Amino acid sequence: MSAPLRRYEWILVAFFVYIASLAVVFWRPVGIAAAVAGLTLVVGIARIDAVIARPGSRALRDWMSPGYVLAAYWSLAPLARGQEARLFDAHWVQWDRVLLHDLGLRQMIESAGPLLPASLEFVYLLLYGLPTVLIGWFYWQRRRDRLESFLEVLFASALLTYALIPLLPSAPPHLEFPRDDLPLYLSALRRLNLWLQNGADITTGVFPSGHVTVAIACLLGIKRVMPDRTQLLRSLSIYAGLLLLATIYGRYHYAVDVFAAVGVAYVASLLTGRLADWQPTAMPEVATAFQPRTK
Predict the structure, then answer these.
(1) Region of residue 53 (phi > 0: left; psi between -120 and 50: alpha; otherwise: beta)
(2) Given a cut of 60, is residue 160 above it in pLDDT?
(3) What's the whole-number mean pLDDT along residues 5-14?
(4) Which residues lie closer than 8 Å to 46 by C-beta, 6 or more apart?
(5) Residue from 168, 143, 267 nearest 216 by CA
(6) pLDDT for the residue 289
(7) In the prediction, which pLDDT does 54 show?
(8) Each residue's pLDDT tens digit, 136-159
(9) Alpha helices of the chain — where are they, by DSSP H?
(10) 76 touches 162 (CB < 8 A)
């Protein structure tokens, strides 16, 4: 029979308890309800798997994990506070202007025309599907036995980021300063990214950057559980570097959001690594009848 909760699911449970506590402090009844709904979903699906104990139910838990991350992010929405709580945006944007203008980052990106700006928008868009693609990669490689450890890094990094967001309210620079520092080119991909943000984003805050945290966590997670896959690690490293540029240049986040997200992902990876060393666990129910793929 499957374990009632996997380690990354315990991380998620702890996060929803934290969000419920913040909702009580801020007195946001909708936030309490959102946290309870998240807890119910996670525990309910785990319990269904524990009762059924079939490959399909176990796979459902795997493939639900990106949805859990999204649900955790949306649970922050009721904790949004007003403009008066944004204390740092005006300072952070000044640092960005040094990077974009004084150091020439914007000029470098736009110097060859619209191709690189549009490519960076595409990089930013791809992040939404990255965790799901990597779950599929573990299945394709027949290494589902390594998936839980990867998801621990992903969940610890993303949820630590989300836990910080309500504490330092801020707004995306392209909304907070809509007439300043915006990219020169308004491509179709940028329009799509802006449309997604307007329709599915939250207004609670942007510090640290969830996009960047997830990208770095995916890189660190693969590095931990499949360190021999050098080609994939190289590709993820290049992707993460481009995403950092896209996030700052596109004015989706301040540079401080990006650097903080990198730090959060590394701290979360370190903590989960220490936890794994202290109390190693396996996934006995995921043994397969075939050998893993080689590089």
Answers:
(1) left
(2) yes
(3) 93
(4) 2, 4, 5, 6, 9, 61
(5) 267
(6) 36
(7) 85
(8) 999 999 999 999 999 999 999 999
(9) 7-26, 29-52, 55-74, 89-97, 105-110, 115-126, 130-140, 147-164, 173-176, 188-200, 210-225, 230-249, 255-278
(10) yes
Q: Which one has a higher pLDDT value, 57 or 160? A: 160
DSSP label of 292: P
Distance separating alpha carbons of residues 206 and 85, to the nearest angstrom = 13
Q: How confident is the model at residue 16 (pLDDT cuts 50, 70, 90)?
A: very high
- Residues 73 and 84: their CA atoms lie apart, in Å, by 22
- The radius of gyration of the chain from alpha carbons, rounded to an integer in Å, stands at 20
Structure tokens at 282: 């396996």
Q: Which of 201, 215, 205 is nearest to 162 (CA)?
A: 205
Question: Residue 141 carries which side chain, given as an amino acid letter?
Answer: Q
Mean pLDDT of the chain: 90
Q: Which residue matches tokens 């802006």?
A: 194
Distances (CA, A) of 31 to 22, 79, 231: 8, 7, 42
For the full predicted model, state whether its pTM sits above 0.85.
Answer: yes
Render pLDDT for 204-219 as a digit per residue (tens, 0 to 9).
Answer: 999 999 999 999 999 9
Does residue 225 contact residue 292 with C-beta atoms inside 8 Å? no
**How far is Cα 210 from Cα 197, in angstroms, rounded to an integer?**
13
Q: For residue 261, which phi and psi values (nearest 5 degrees)?
A: -65, -40
